[in-house]
Amino acid sequence: MSEYVLELKGITKIFPGVKALNNVQFQLKPGEIHALMGENGAGKSTFIKVITGVHKAEEGEMYLDGKKVDFKGPKDAQAAGIAAIYQHVTAYPDLTVAENIFMGHEIKKNGLIQWKAMYAEADKLLEQLEADFKSNAEMGTLSVAQQQMVEIAKALSMKARIIIMDEPTAALTKNESEKLYGIAEKLRDEGASIIFISHRFEDMYRLATRVTVFRDSQYIGSYDVDKITNADLIKAMVGREINDLFPKPDVKFGEEVLRVENLSRIGYFKDVNFNVRKGEIVGLTGLVGAGRTEVVETIFGITKPSSGKIYLEGKEVTIKQPSEAMGLGIGLLPEDRQKSGLIMSWGLGRNVTLSTLHKYAKNGFLDDKKEREISKEFLEEVDTKAVTIFDLASSLSGGNQQKVVVAKTLVQDLKVVIMDEPTKGVDVGAKAEIYDIMGQLAQKGYGVILISSEMPEILGMSDRIYVMCNGKITGELSRAEATQELILEHAMEKSSKDKKEAAGS
Q: Which of 58, 65, 288, 432 is deepest in the core (most CB within 10 A)?
């Protein structure tokens, strides 16, 4: 019997103009959680698609339980017991949970779908995962974490024994991540083998016994998790040492560039007050649902405030829509780059220049040459890994997509740059590059607002930190006094008070 439930040797995959995988290898043991790590663009997504039969490799061999296999398509992989759960869940929102679980492999008898049996089986699977919803729930009503649970249930319904989890914690809260860890461990204990792809070191340390690293489409090595240091792992992933992950430059602050006074939006946040100076990076943090994104969306004109005032360089401004905000010099890097930051079916160049196209037009005609030059300049400035400016945004890795959104923001003539979770779902190398860009913006005199749920990021990059809880600012901390404990204290302050008051009433 083979030592490995899954083994790949010498896998090479070539797309026009790029070698996506170059002679990579991988070994997965029975009942193991094996982490796969690497920078965005390292080849991890292509590798998954080779395993699941979506792509066919030009070279190399794949073995299941020591026997060579040759998948003609995804159905072959599913029949062999392989399932993949992706970061961005592909679901049918208007169908029920049960219909999503059994899509393509419905329970049938004499050609007829056995609806009662299917819903009963779906409920059993959900109960096994300790889900807090039923199989008759509409998929579109579920949270991201719940939708991922449905995907896991789908894998179980197909009797999957090899489960690939691709960045499953990227959009989850800490509590949701812990629940997912528990599910992964339970599946492992029941005999499943799991490939866990993540940029988060805490995921790897929490779950995996071994980690394999890809870099630049090549296999770098496999390591025991308890024997490799953070520094060595980072070096393996990015090919260099990152001595200072948070390259925060010393900047002399200028005059106040943005101030909000008693900004409120009924049902979301109330009486929010803060200011930003030129050259200053101001962190805005708190637990998920505290109201951070809602505040900056109101400043940017996506939503309307119920009351309050916004001042730009000392003058009160009224912002009714995003185009007005950009015209005044306020830019927003949105949290969801795919839905709000990019047009995925467009080329990179046009994505970069979209908000400033009027600058390259004369007498109603677009100066294509100038537009291309500008987009190329800014894409190079953020070091986007792409073949040409005509590559589709959808063809890039998550980290490189984020760099395009950064380039799109920088091309505008701005005074204030708002970055909402700018490093969400990107690798450690891309993070360092985004932090460097953030520091450069501060040096150039921009006022920067950083929204982040990652405590090291907030502490490492912010000059001042505002903490939010339940729609209110509950604390303002200087860089010198801020600690993780103090931030958490402010982040949970109001809810604790509310509980005490409720208990006393």
A: 432
Q: Are residues 17 and 75 in the same domain?
A: yes
Query: In 3D, which of 290, 302, 397, 293 has the Cα closest to residue 335?
Result: 293
Grade residue 242 by pLDDT with cuts at 50, 70 and 90. low
Do 379 and 490 share a structural domain?
no
Position 337 in a domain? no
Q: Which of 378, 411, 444 is the last residue of a domain?
A: 411
Say if CB 8 and CB 21 are below 8 A apart.
Answer: no
Q: What is the DSSP letter of 471?
A: T
Residue type, 374: I
Residues 6+ apart with CB under 8 A from 300: 319, 322, 325, 330, 332, 418
SS3 390: coil
Model pTM score: 0.65
End-to-end CA distance of the chain: 67
SS3 423: coil
HSE value, Cβ hemisphere, 13 Å, CA-based, for 306: 11
Query: DSSP letters along 309-374, please?
Result: EEEETTEEE---SHHHHHHHTEEEE-S-IIIII--TTSBHHHHHHGGGGGGGEETTEE-HHHHHHH
Which DSSP state fits 138?
B
Do 54 and 170 lie in one domain? The reply is: yes
If asked whether residues 95 and 155 sit together in one domain, one would say yes
Measure the CA–CA gap between 134 and 122, rounded to whole angstroms.
8
* Parallel/antiparallel/unpaired status of strands 33-37 and 210-215: parallel
pLDDT in tens, 79-95: 999 999 887 777 889 99
Give the SS3 label for residue 73.
Answer: coil
* Six token digits for residue 497: 């008070």
Angle ∠(297,455,209) on CA atoms, nearest 5: 120
Q: Give the structural domain span for 398.
A: 343-411
CA-to-CA distance for 450 and 462, rounded, in angstroms? 8
The domain that holds 487 is classified in CATH as 3.40.50.300
Asked if residues 442 and 384 have their Cβ atoms less than 8 Å apart, the reply is no
Are 214 and 238 in contact by the 8 Å Cβ rule? The answer is: no
Cβ of 280: how many Cβ atoms within 10 Å?
Answer: 23
Total domains, the chain: 3
pLDDT tens digits, one per residue of 266-282: 999 999 999 999 999 99
Question: What is the band of 501 on the pLDDT scale with cuts at 50, 70, 90?
Answer: very low
> Same domain for 150 and 285?
no
Q: Tell me the H-state helices in 17-161.
A: 44-51, 74-79, 97-101, 115-128, 144-157
Give pLDDT tens digits for 171-180: 677 778 888 8
What DSSP line would sit under 211-267, residue for residue?
EEEEETTEEEEEEEGGG--HHHHHHHHHSS--S-SS--------SEEEEEEEEEETT
